[in-house]
Queue: 2 jobs
Job 1
Amino acid sequence: MIQYKDDCVGCPPEIGCLGISCPYSNIPITYCDNCKQESTLYVFPDTDEQLCATCMERELNALWAGLTFQEKCEIFDVKEVKI
Ligand SMILES: [Zn+2]
Ligand SMILES: [Zn+2]
C-alpha cells in the first residue's frame, strides 16, 4: 500500500507550510501488504496486492514449485537432447 506522509520540517515559520505545494508534505511511503515493512513494492499484473521483494519472491517460489517440469522447461526454453 502507498501512504502519504507529511514530513514538513523546513518551511519558514513566518510564512508557514506551503501546504499542498510544500515539497516535504505528501511524501509517498510504500508498505508491503503482507509483512507491513516499508520497502519497494512489486505487483502481479492482475492483482492489487503490493508486496516487498521478500514476500514477492516467496510467492514466485510457490508458483514455481507448482509448475510442471514441462512448464519450467518452456520458460527457459529447455529442449530435450535429440540423438
Ligand atoms: Zn511545508
Ligand atoms: Zn513483505
Job 2
Amino acid sequence: MRPENLLVPTPAGLCCPEGAFHIDPVRPVKRALITHAHSDHARAGHGAVLATAETLDLMRLRYGEGFAGTTQAVAYGERLTIDGTTVSFHPAGHVLGSAQIRVERNGLVIVASGDYKDVPDPTCAPFELVPCDVFISEATFGLPVFRHGDIATEIGKLMRSLALFPDRAHLVGAYSLGKAQRLIALLRAAGYDRPIFLHGAMEAITGYYAVRMDLGDLRAVRDGQKAEFAGAVVLCPPSALGDRWTRRFPDPIACFASGWMRIRARARQRGVELPLVVSDHCDWDGLTRVIPATGAREIWLTHGAEEALVHWCATRGLRAKPLHLVGYGDEEEVEVLEAATASSDQDASATDESAAGEPA
Ligand SMILES: [Zn+2]
C-alpha cells in the first residue's frame, strides 16, 4: 500500500478512505480523530469523535455537551481497529491530553503528530517517539531563527521583573489552553507562591487543569481589588493585552509568552514590554531532532514554514513534501486573527471577559 492511499489530504483535512475517518478535520465529518483540543484542530459538529479523555473534556468545556454526535475516549497506547485500519494515540507533549495519531494498515505506519514539542512540560505527558514509515510534522517554527532557548531563563526574566517593579501589575498574555497553565506550573516550581490572577476566559480550563495538578493559589481577576494587583501576575489571552480590560490594573507591564517573541519586531509591534520566549511547539532544533529520530523515510509537513524543512530533509536524504492543508496555525496567531475579526465590528464586548480572546 502506498502512503498516499492510506492518508489523503482533502479540503476537510487528512482523510483515511479505508477507515472512513478524518484526522483533525476543519469541516464537519462523520468520524473524526482529534489530536488535541486547540480550536484549529478540534472543531464542533462532527458525527463521532475519537480522542483522549482530556481532549474530549476540554472540547466539552469549550463547545458545550452537544459538540459531537457521539464521543469515544481512547487511552494512550490503546490499539483500536477501524475497518481494518489500526489506530493508536501517543503523547505529543503539546498540551494536556494531546496526542500523535499512529495509523497502520498492511504493515505501513503513518504518524500524524498534530502539534508537538519534545521538551519537558510539567502539565502534560512527555512526547513519545513513535517509529514510523511516514511522519507528518507541523512546521510552525520551521526556520533556524526559531530557537526557544531555556524556559527557566524566561521564567527568571519574569521573576526579576516582579522583584524590580513590585507596584506594577504584570499582565502576561498567554494562550488559554496549555500555555497559561504551563506558566503557572513553572512559576510555582520556581518558588513563586503568591496568588496568580486569571482573566475570565481562562478560569474554566485552568480549573480543569488544577484538579489534576497543584497550581497553587489561583484567583479570578473579577474578584480582585486594584491594590491586590500591584506586583501580581495576571494571566490573560494575548488579545486582552490591547483592550480596555487592562485599565483596571495599576501601571501594567505587558508581557507576552510566545515562540514568536524570538522576533523582536513582533514584540514591538504588539507593544509588549516584557517578551517571554515560551512555546508549546517544537523549535527548529526540536523539529530537526524529532524528524530523523522517528526513522521515517518520508516526511509530510503541514502548517507553518514548510520550505526550510523540506530543504533540510533533502540534505539528509529524506523525502519531504508540504501537504498544503488549510485551516491550521499556531494557536496564538489564530487567536489574534480571530480577535481582530471580532473586534472590527464591535466595541462593547471589548470589556466582556467571557468574550475576549477565546477563539470561537
Ligand atoms: Zn495546538
